[in-house]
């Protein structure tokens, strides 16, 4: 079997690219758009219900014993990256459009990923139990913190968005299904844990639906005519710069704070990554009526960059020497 080159997008990213192309060539509009929006909203509610049913509360509670590590991850995710996004505004303003900058700020306030953070930590021989707790806690807290940070960080630099409405909509469309899933876990948790393939279909399917409807609306509004080609290059540079800065800060910051190598790996992978699975459904709710296609584009690029960079970095960590007396 031929091994996929590291620089190649993964299958899901290829599906997203195909979805963007489909929305560009055959955008939905009118009644069709209303039908797609209804299906998309239902899929998002189902997605967060299943995530609630999948996430064991014990994982977050158990992680409280390593509170310094989890606090460091949360600071990287919800404090440092938003500050970096604001600090780079003078550079971004000259490279990207205002809507793309809005999307970059949105990337900065999102929670960490769960599956890929844990997977990369495992490949790199890091502290996997801590990664499970840190990533789960970040995703859970993100349901509350991301709308608040959108109100504090994004709204203040864009206008036209109501933080109160955003929090209310998140509560109705994401939080309530998530809580319902947590309540239902005692009855359906085993089935959900055994049905990972089904959850993956709902996960990826809901994201692709949001991408299609978002880009259809944006194309109908003239997205590609209004988006200069140099802005796409600038967006790629800014996403790469943000990822490089937060990974560097997480690496040297964890060493300065006295964490061992295994904990450093966990902090780097959990503290630098942003969740596409949570981010795109949240964007649909938080930026309703806005240029959603341009808002989610920075997240799609950041997602692929973080996967490629983390794959290389995880292999590099994995090749390190193991001190005598310590298990691999």
UniProtKB/TrEMBL annotation:
The keyword Hydrolase is annotated on this UniProt entry: no
Organism in which the protein naturally occurs: Actimicrobium antarcticum
Protein's recorded name: Bile acid:sodium symporter
Gene3D superfamilies reported in the protein's UniProt record: 1.20.1530.20
Keywords: Membrane, Transmembrane, Transmembrane helix
Metal-binding found in the keyword field: no
Transmembrane parts of this sequence: 67-88, 100-120, 140-158, 170-189, 232-252, 291-314
Domain of life: Bacteria
UniProt-listed PANTHER family: SODIUM_BILE ACID COTRANSPORTER 7, SOLUTE CARRIER FAMILY 10 MEMBER 7
Taxonomic path: Bacteria, Pseudomonadati, Pseudomonadota, Betaproteobacteria, Burkholderiales
């Amino acid at each position: 079997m031929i091994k996929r080159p590291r620089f190649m997008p993964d299958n899901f990213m290829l599906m997203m690219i195909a979805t963007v192309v489909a929305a560009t060539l055959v955008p939905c509009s009118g009644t069709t758009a209303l039908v797609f929006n209804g299906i998309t909203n239902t899929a998002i509610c189902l997605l967060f219900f299943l995530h609630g049913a999948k996430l064991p509360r014990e994982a977050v509670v158990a992680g409280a014993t390593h509170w310094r590590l989890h606090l460091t991850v949360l600071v990287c995710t919800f404090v440092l990256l938003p500050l970096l996004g604001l600090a780079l505004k003078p550079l971004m303003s000259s490279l990207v459009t205002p809507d793309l900058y809005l999307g970059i700020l949105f990337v900065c306030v999102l929670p960490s990923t769960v599956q890929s953070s844990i997977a990369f930590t495992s490949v790199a021989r890091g502290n996997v139990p801590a990664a499970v707790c840190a990533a789960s806690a970040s995703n859970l807290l993100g349901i509350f913190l991301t709308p608040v940070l959108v109100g504090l960080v994004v709204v203040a630099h864009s206008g036209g968005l109501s933080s109160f409405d955003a929090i209310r909509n998140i509560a109705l469309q994401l939080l309530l299904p998530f809580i319902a899933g947590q309540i239902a876990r005692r009855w359906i948790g085993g089935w959900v844990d055994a049905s990972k393939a089904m959850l993956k279909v709902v996960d990826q399917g809901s994201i692709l639906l949001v991408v299609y409807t978002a880009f259809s609306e944006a194309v109908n509004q003239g997205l590609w005519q209004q988006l200069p080609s140099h802005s796409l290059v600038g967006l790629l540079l800014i996403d790469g710069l943000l990822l490089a800065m937060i990974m560097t800060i997480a690496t040297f910051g964890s060493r300065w704070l006295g964490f061992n190598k295994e904990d450093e790996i966990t902090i780097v992978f959990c503290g630098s990554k942003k969740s596409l699975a949570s981010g795109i459904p949240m964007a649909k709710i938080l930026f309703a009526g806005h240029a959603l296609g341009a808002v989610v584009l920075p997240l799609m690029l950041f997602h692929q960059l973080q996967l490629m960079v983390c794959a290389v970095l995880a292999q590099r960590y994995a090749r390190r020497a193991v001190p005598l007396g310590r298990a691999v």
